[in-house]
Amino acid sequence: MILIGTMNLTRTRERGDFYCPTCSSSQTYRLRARRPFLTLYFIPTVPVGGAEVFVDCDGCRDNWDVSVLELDRAHHEAQQEDQFRDEAMRSAVLVVLADGTTSENEIATLQRIAMRLLQREADREELGHLCSVAVENKILAKNYVLTVSRRWSPEQRARALQAMFLAATADDEMGEPQMKLLSEMRDVLEMSPNEYESAIEAALSWDEV
């Protein structure tokens, strides 16, 4: 009986240093090439496809496309900050929607939050779109923040909490759903009591900066 099959062979082409997005620091890497081979009696004989080239981080062991070698730290951190700003803004919108109603005060507050977080104006149409997407997809603030906050830094978590606090207190009286949601955010964001209280206090001075 002739035993024929396939197997992947992976070889290291070169080594070097790069900025790893997962580690958020400089790490050593291996540039590796993986290619399928036809085997005869478990011995690789003939290549049957093109080589897949990828970057293997020695720190976290994640694999990346070779384009990651062109990524510099400043550019990556700027992209992460832009992503955070959008996520924090959506979190504030979801807090407003927690009680099922949206008032004029809440819309005005979201526009103030947008100026602080996004550093630009957000008109009613943009806010309406964010609300519609959240309602249509039944996105809950707690679940959303729990998912996206895993990649936030402690400073970003504090800023996001401040935005959510201002959204929750836009009206004179905070609704019970929003009050409950804010109390849960301390655990969701993995903040200590002091960090939580400091962030809330800092939110009160947003308009002064």
What is the CATH superfamily label of the largest domain? TerB-like
CATH class of the largest domain: Mainly Alpha
The string of secondary-structure elements, in order, is EEEEEHHHHHHH
CATH topology group of the largest domain: TerB-like
Integer average pLDDT = 89
Organism: Stieleria marina
Pfam family, one: TerB
Domain Co-chaperone DjlA N-terminal: 89-199
InterPro entries: DjlA_N, TerB-like
Brief synopsis:
The chain folds into two domains: 4-71, no CATH class; 74-208, TerB-like (Orthogonal Bundle). It has seven helices and five strands, in the order E-E-E-E-E-H-H-H-H-H-H-H. The protein has helices at 73-96, 104-117, 124-136, 141-148, 154-168, 176-188, 193-203; strands at 4-20, 25-40, 43-47, 52-57, 63-64.
How would you describe this structure to a colleague?
With 209 residues, the chain is an alpha+beta fold. 47% of the residues lie in helices and 22% in strands. The longest helix has 24 residues, at 73-96.
What's the topology here?
Layout: E1 4-20, E2 25-40, E3 43-47, E4 52-57, E5 63-64, H1 73-96, H2 104-117, H3 124-136, H4 141-148, H5 154-168, H6 176-188, H7 193-203
Antiparallel strand pairs: 1-2, 2-3, 2-4, 4-5
